[in-house]
Recover the amino acids of this structure.
């Protein structure tokens, strides 16, 4: 197909919305680029974080379900989101995680990149990757993290699979990835030259536990595609290859199709347009609750049901 441009966003299920906001904005320094509801369940928020303008490839999104069961990492799940940070910034992040009592591992240098693995308060596993060719994003001037240390683009995602075989075929034959050898015991796949958002790691784990979706776990990974036309073509190709692909869904900020890859991880293909400035000015992204037209009529009830949130702009 060759139409996939890399990772668009990663979506996870999280704990309380305020805890999530305090961590991703207040500690990691990302911008809240959209405050909306889960389009399939308007009783829950959908929080989107990213760079200053919400560029595809920088977006982490969350469904807060604080009362939900915890997720379990394992086969058939994506386990880790890897985020690019500037070379030399790891000591800054160690100090910051220590000050905010964030759980992190000892940094490691693998394949020329310094890696700092850490966990969000709900247990989601993330890793900062500092390499000389840092994948910078559009810096948000409101960030509590200085520009020279700021998180850039999503570098890659790790999938855990019982067997590599059929997932490898899908990545190669339908999504345009190519295997490029092992990194830290995982099979690496690149799109094109393997720049930012163009890498996937697949860890084969034939005997470990099966993963279970839940709080603190990744719900799905979305891949970028240029526009709706390319998406329709790609959908037809996936259906032809025997995959059970959803209809095109209007997610307001992008259009999406969903399918499960053979190992069980939920994949989405999302269009770059129209983006997050479609319903509020770029300067005020994330400042107020945005609802899709079908829920606008119920705004009062929805606002009364959702917990109130406080934006931690200067939580340093
Ligand atoms: Zn998504």
């Amino acid at each position: 197909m060759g139409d996939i441009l890399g990772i668009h966003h990663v979506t996870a299920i999280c704990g309380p919305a305020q805890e999530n906001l305090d961590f991703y904005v207040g500690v990691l320094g990302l911008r809240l680029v959209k405050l909306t509801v889960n389009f399939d369940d308007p009783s829950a928020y959908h929080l989107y974080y990213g760079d200053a303008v919400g560029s595809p490839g920088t977006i982490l999104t969350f469904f807060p379900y604080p009362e939900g069961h915890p997720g379990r990492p394992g086969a058939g799940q994506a386990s880790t989101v890897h985020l690019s940070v500037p070379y030399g910034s790891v000591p800054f992040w160690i100090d910051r995680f220590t000050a905010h009592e964030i759980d992190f591992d000892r940094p490691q240098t693998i394949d020329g990149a310094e890696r700092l693995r850490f966990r969000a308060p709900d247990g989601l596993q993330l890793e900062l990757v500092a390499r000389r060719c840092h994948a910078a994003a559009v810096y948000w001037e409101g960030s509590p993290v200085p520009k020279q240390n700021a998180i850039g683009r999503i570098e890659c995602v790790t999938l855990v699979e019982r067997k590599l075989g059929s997932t490898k075929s899908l990545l190669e034959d339908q999504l345009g990835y190519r295997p490029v050898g092992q990194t830290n015991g995982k099979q690496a796949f690149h799109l094109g030259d393997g720049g930012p958002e163009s890498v996937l790691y697949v860890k084969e784990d034939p005997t470990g536990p099966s993963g279970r979706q839940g709080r603190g776990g990744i719900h799905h990974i979305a891949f970028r595609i240029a526009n709706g036309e390319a998406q329709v073509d790609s959908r037809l190709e996936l259906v032809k290859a025997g995959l059970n692909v959803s209809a095109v869904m209007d997610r307001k900020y992008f259009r999406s199709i969903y399918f499960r890859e053979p190992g069980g991880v939920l994949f989405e293909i999302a269009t770059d347009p129209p983006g997050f400035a479609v319903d509020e000015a770029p300067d005020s992204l994330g400042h107020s609750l945005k609802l899709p037209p079908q829920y606008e009529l119920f705004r009062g009830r929805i606002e009364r049901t959702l917990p109130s949130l406080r934006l931690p702009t200067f939580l340093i």
